[in-house]
Design goal:
467 residues, Arc Repressor Mutant, subunit A, 3 domains, seven-stranded mixed sheet, 13 helices, globular, binds flavin-adenine dinucleotide
């Protein structure tokens, strides 16, 4: 039987944005429910070990932001807001959500919904990127910080942006020997990033925490380098690395081969926007080209009663997520009929504007490097769910044109379980780098139900319940 819940405000996501939203809405008087896929609340950055691990300790050194996370988690727990954990929200309508948990379906009816669904790793394909032992930086962190696993013994870490440092230090703390740390962006990007750090005390402290641990390890970051290919029969055994130009385009004159059983790649993040698309929120291209729901000064999307906060409205980091969550929580509570003093709104709006400005500067320092999409060879998979190779996409584009929708029909790229979460940006990237197709010409893809895979039985039950 379908479980049903009622709330003033339903918050999807228990990361910093969702937790702050829930707390603000609760403090305004609203009845709040939080839903999250994770086993425990915290989201990506405040990831907690599963409760079954007991008190065996934390795997990596606590960063300054983690103290903030502990405080937030404590406050949410003290507020009595229920957290529905291990639930996947797979359908959303204004005023109602359907979720799946252990094969059971639940429906939450709420006057206001806050989307705080975060982000996931941006993937860039290169020969061998689907071999076992090649993982995203986020997945490596989940293994180390969320499960206390050591994902390999000799690692090459490659990518771009500020998340490389936490990944490196988490791996080193777990006992992985990192043999090369490669930042694809030129050294000038780092200098621009420092400019952003100067504007935020919290970000400076966080960066120094990781930089100090990294410098102590004796390893050095190679700027303008990346992974060209991973080699191995049934899992990665070696890696070719090389230099890239300022746009990320591989320069084939500086290749080196290293032995490694782990390759961690982190080329930035993409917003988890599928529920926003499913709710038919107006979507815009963010500064990094990702699709994000348009929000007003109080985090309201274009759909009445739907608010969004944190990475889902643009990659911005923990402080922005928390500030936006707080504002969205107040606005959602007000939408549900609770009184919020104008000065509370004014303060929250000002903080949000300040934090977003800092994170925009940091994001601009490490843009998506279009030349990296030239790493893929003709037989490299570009859609791993449906086994579609670059060659097939080029052939289909030559026959039918380079529209994403047409290519999806022709090749099945984007039709698998990820529903384009991983491959949509890859397709845009390879079409731009190989065929000169302007990525901005593609429309925002529609999201179909279920936005994440669930059993057909659950889908039918939810659709029956929601009408
Ligand atoms: C893999 C990864 C690793 C990161 N590591 C670091 C780091 O080490 N240091 C750092 O400073 N920043 C890190 N970041 C960035 C950091 O996550 C963000 O700055 C911050 O956590 C954003 O907060 P948020 O609340 O917007 O999203 P998140 O913290 O990502 O929280 C979103 C939550 O929404 C839930 N969710 C999403 N979709 C659904 C759904 N359909 N149903 C149910 N629940 C759903 C997810 O389970 C998740 O818990 C990382 C980001 C990622 C993606």
């Amino acid at each position: 039987m379908t479980r049903t819940h009622a709330a003033d405000v339903a918050v999807i996501g228990a990361g910093p944005a969702g937790l702050a939203a829930a707390l603000a809405a609760r403090q305004a008087g609203a009845v709040v429910t939080i839903l999250d896929e994770g086993a425990r609340p915290g989201g990506q950055i405040f990831r907690q070990l599963p409760a079954a691990f007991g008190t065996i300790g934390q795997p990596a050194a606590d960063a300054p932001s983690h103290a903030l996370g502990h405080a937030l988690l404590h406050d949410v727990e003290a507020s009595g807001v229920p957290v529905l954990a291990r639930v996947t929200v797979f359908e959303a309508r204004p005023g109602a959500l359907a979720y799946e948990r252990d094969g059971e379906v639940g429906v939450v009816r709420a006057k206001a919904i806050v989307l705080a669904t975060g982000a996931y790793d941006r993937s860039v394909p290169f020969p061998g990127w689907t071999l076992p032992g090649v993982v995203t930086a986020g997945a490596a962190q989940v293994m180390v910080r969320g499960q206390m696993l050591r994902p390999g013994t000799r690692a090459v870490v490659a990518g771009t942006g500020p998340l490389l440092l936490p990944t490196l230090t988490a791996l080193q703390a777990a006992g992985v020997r990192v043999v090369a740390a490669l930042e694809a962006a030129p050294r000038t990007a780092l200098l621009r990033g420092v400019g952003a750090l100067l504007r935020s005390r919290a970000k400076r402290r966080e960066a120094w925490h990781y930089a100090r641990a990294f410098l102590r390890s004796g390893l050095r970051l190679r700027h303008g380098w990346t992974v060209f290919a991973a080699h191995g029969a049934d899992r990665v055994a070696a890696v070719t690395i090389g230099r890239v130009d300022r746009t990320g385009r591989p320069r084939r004159d500086h290749e080196q081969r290293l032995e490694a059983d782990l390759v961690c790649v982190g080329f930035g993040l993409e917003p988890s926007n599928e529920l926003a698309r499913r709710l038919r929120c107006t979507m815009l291209r963010g500064p990094d080209g990702s699709w994000v729901p348009q929000v007003d000064a109080r985090m309201a999307t274009s759909v009445a009663g739907v608010f969004a906060a944190g990475e889902v409205v643009g990659i911005g980091g923990v402080d922005t997520a928390r500030a936006e969550g707080h504002l969205a929580g107040l606005a959602a509570a007000a939408h549900a009929g609770w009184t919020v003093a104008p000065e509370r709104f004014a303060q929250a709006e000002a903080e949000r504007v300040r934090e977003r400005a800092v994170s925009r500067t940091l994001l601009a320092a490490f843009p998506v490097l279009p030349g990296l999409y030239e790493l893929a060879a003709p037989d490299t998979l570009v859609c791993r769910c449906e086994d579609v190779r670059l060659r097939e996409v080029r052939e289909a584009a030559a026959l039918f044109g380079p529209e994403l929708r047409t290519l999806k029909m022709a090749t099945r790229a984007g039709m698998g379980p990820c529903q384009g979460r991983i491959c949509a940006s890859i397709l845009e990237g390879v079409l731009a780098s190989r065929l000169g197709v302007d990525p901005h010409r593609h429309a925002c893809p529609a999201a179909q139900v279920p936005v994440k895979p669930v059993a057909a039985r659950c889908l039918l039950e939810a659709l029956r319940e929601l009408g």
